[in-house]
Amino acid sequence: MGGTNDKRRRQGSGKKHTDRRTDDIEYFAYRLDDGPDESDIEKKEKKRKNPRPRPQRSDLQKAQFTSEIPKEIRAQRGKEVQRKELQRKELQRKEVQGKEPQKSHEQKQKAQSHPGSHTEKQTKQNGQKNGSDHGVRTVSSASPAGHGRSKKDKNKDKVKKTALLAGGGILGAAALVYLGFAFYFTNHFYFNTTINGNDFSGKTVKEVEAYMEKQVEGYTLTLKENDGGTEVISGEDISLEYLPGKELEKIVKDQNALLWIRALFQKGSAEAKVDVQYDEAALDALISGLQCMKPENQTPSVSAKPTFDGNEFVITKEVVGTQLDQEAFSEKIKEKISGFQHEIDLEKEGCYIQPKFTEDSPEVIAAKDKMNSYLGGTVTYQMGSTPEGIDKAKLAEWITVDENMNVTFATDNISTYVRDLASRYDTVGKTRSFTTPTGKAATVSGGTYGWSIDEAAEIEQLKADIAGGQPVQREPIYEQRAASFGETDWGNTYAEVDLSTQHMWYIQDGNVVLETDIVSGLPTPDRITPEGVYDVLYKESPSVLVGEKDPETGQPIYETEVRYWMQFTWSGVGFHDADWQTAFGGSLYQSVGSHGCINMPVDKAGQLLNLISAGVPVICHY
């Protein structure tokens, strides 16, 4: 009965259902021909996310709809639905990758290796629910987790896994090698290990001891000396022998075997002094008898220092001599013997007393720079119209450096120069040639007038000029000056006395303004008028002339008052009036000569007092 009603309903509504099925078939056929594009997929995705309510079919309607679709169309429809579903899931996967971190390689492998995952379970459930004859929905719902990963990604995972395994293997092998070396160095010496100056890298204690024992036989130590000579010390002469001890074992034991790799980058040194034995007294005697120990064969070392090369000061390199530091020399020999070393270079081992300064010593460099700065302090003297220069070569003779690199002046050398300068330009007491007002050629020497350099002051001034380091032009420092430079340095205003003719002149500005006969000193040693060039010390009027004291009476030999007095020697000789003389000139001085003064007529003496002044030169000559 129920089946009849159902059949009747199907027949009554057949046209309606037929039209709907036809529309659906045409729709799917159109979609299969046209194919989805990117915009269709995006629209589908939007619809999926925001579904629009649609009327639900009953199970009977679904079954009728599915069974009436041609088999070919259903198959195509199933493939299309499956393809769209895969595209939709691919879009979802890309969105997830952009927002969430990628799953680890282990998570992906786990998802692939579990067939009972959520996706497969869902697929099975859908298949059971829809039935085997409704394969379209079964295919569309099945999506294993591993289907989203490409073959390229899987290959990358395999490469990473292989690399990790290989790296782990290499590290493991390296660790085994390192530990192997660590075990090796528990009874072997480190790399770069020297003992008593010998290289024993990688050796065992027994190997080192065997080496030591072998070295005793025929052992000699050769000394290479600085002068090219050599001397030999024999082990037999000092009863040299090897005594094994615990020192070598201690050195190995003190090594940290696990830190052996450090020895590749640093050199280790150890001393095992107790391993050898010798007769120390015999060795000391041998050392004392060496040729290099004799005083006559030892020369001191010379420090580097600045020297002048003709233009500037440069550093002359130090020289290591052959003078031995006896204590260091003895210790070095014993050290070499203890290590069974066969040669010692005395200079390289520091056995010689070294120079205090080398060419690189800051003190030497500073001294050189200072001395070169002094070379800039050249001096040029203005000696009238004649310049007198002191150049670099001369300055270099005056600049010296002591053993401590203190720059000083060679005062003796400077003094020698100043004395020579004075001898050439000082005129005091020198012989001068000139012409008298009468045209007579005359010479004069002696006296106190003329140029005289103050040598002590000039030496100090020269030091100051040189230390200043700048060129200087100046006159010397004079103790006494003259009127002009040259042989007749008294100028053109002076008093002249011709002792041979007993006549005097006063020349002013080159002209004779006064002349007169005179009477000079009695020609005896104690009363003769001194020859020479002087200058007026002072004048006064009147004045009392006091002679020397009489040794017997203690009283002055004479006391005479004069109207006009003009003294020109420090011994008391001067011009004055002499009214007691009855005549002047001629040879009167030989009989009635004065005590050395120039006697003048009263009127002439008064005129001279008015003309002459202190400092005016006075020339007395024969």
Task: Please tally the helical runs, counting DSSP H or I stretches of 4 or more residues.
Answer: 19
Spatial separation of the terminal alpha carbons: 193 Å
Question: What is the makeup of the main sheet?
Answer: 5 strands, mixed
Derived structural class: alpha+beta
Beta-strand content estimate: 15-25%
Uncertain segments are 1-36, 102-106, 110-147
Brief rundown of the structure:
By secondary structure, the chain is of the alpha+beta class. It is 40% helix and 19% strand.
Q: Could you characterize what this model shows?
A:
With 622 residues, the chain is of the alpha+beta class. The chain has 4 domains: 18-98, no CATH class; 187-356, no CATH class; 375-480, Ubiquitin-like (UB roll) (Roll), CATH 3.10.20; 494-621, L,D-transpeptidase catalytic domain-like (Beta Barrel). Helices cover 40% and strands 19% of the residues. The protein has 19 helices and 30 strands. The chain is elongated, with a radius of gyration of 64 Å.
Question: What are the SSEs and their pairings?
Answer:
Elements lengths: L1 H11 L1 H21 L3 H12 L9 H10 L2 H29 L5 H9 L4 H13 L4 H7 L9 H34 L8 E3 L2 E2 L5 H12 L3 E5 L5 E5 L6 E2 L4 H8 L13 E3 L5 E2 L2 H9 L16 E4 L4 E4 L9 H13 L4 E3 L16 H13 L4 E5 L2 E5 L1 H7 E3 L5 E3 L1 H15 L3 E7 L5 E6 L5 E2 L1 H14 L3 E3 L3 E3 L13 E5 L4 E6 L2 E7 L14 E4 L2 E3 L2 E4 L12 E4 L2 E3 L6 E4 L11 H4 L5 E3 L1 H10 L5 E5 L1
Parallel strand pairs: 1-6, 3-10, 11-18, 20-30, 28-29
Antiparallel strand pairs: 1-2, 3-4, 5-7, 8-9, 11-12, 13-14, 15-16, 17-19, 20-21, 21-22, 23-30, 24-27, 25-26, 27-28
